[in-house]
């Protein structure tokens, strides 16, 4: 998410954002939202909680949003696979460790008003 927000600020010069976040209390949503705040802070872009709208990670969000969104793609298969490997390691008595599955940015064509959602 940091890379997406940075791309929009650094490469396109955008300074006014509305961020469509995942649900309150969701670890992934919290980390993504914090990454956006970190970019805005690093590039001295005015941004606060009033510019954040919350969704629920459901597929219905596509019906709520009209323009194509710049977003991040995550491979659910890889995430599940890594979770299974971790579970198997725990069953064998090995130490649990964190794994970060890389995500890819899907950059959509800029429009007059650009919205960022995840």
Describe the structure.
The structure is a single chain. The chain is α/β, with parallel strands linked by helices. Helices cover 39% and strands 14% of the residues. The protein is built from four helices and five strands. The protein has a three-stranded parallel beta sheet, covered by helices on one side. A two-stranded antiparallel sheet has the order 3-4. The protein is elongated and about 50 Å long. The N and C termini lie close together (8 Å).
Strand and helix map with partners:
Layout: H1 2-11, E1 19-21, H2 27-42, E2 52-54, H3 61-64, E3 71-74, H4 76-91, E4 103-106, E5 116-117
Overview in brief:
With 118 residues, the chain is of the alpha/beta class.
Mean pLDDT: 83
User: Number of DSSP helices?
Assistant: 4
Overall morphology:
elongated
SSE order in H/E notation? HEHEHEHEE
Distance between the termini: 8 Å
Helix content: 25-40%
Spans with pLDDT under 50 lasting ≥5 residues? none
Task: Provide the gyration radius in Å.
Answer: 16 Å
Strand content: 5-15%
Q: Keyphrases for this structure?
A:
single chain, 118 residues, alpha/beta, three-stranded parallel sheet, two-stranded antiparallel sheet, 4 helices, 39% helix, 14% strand
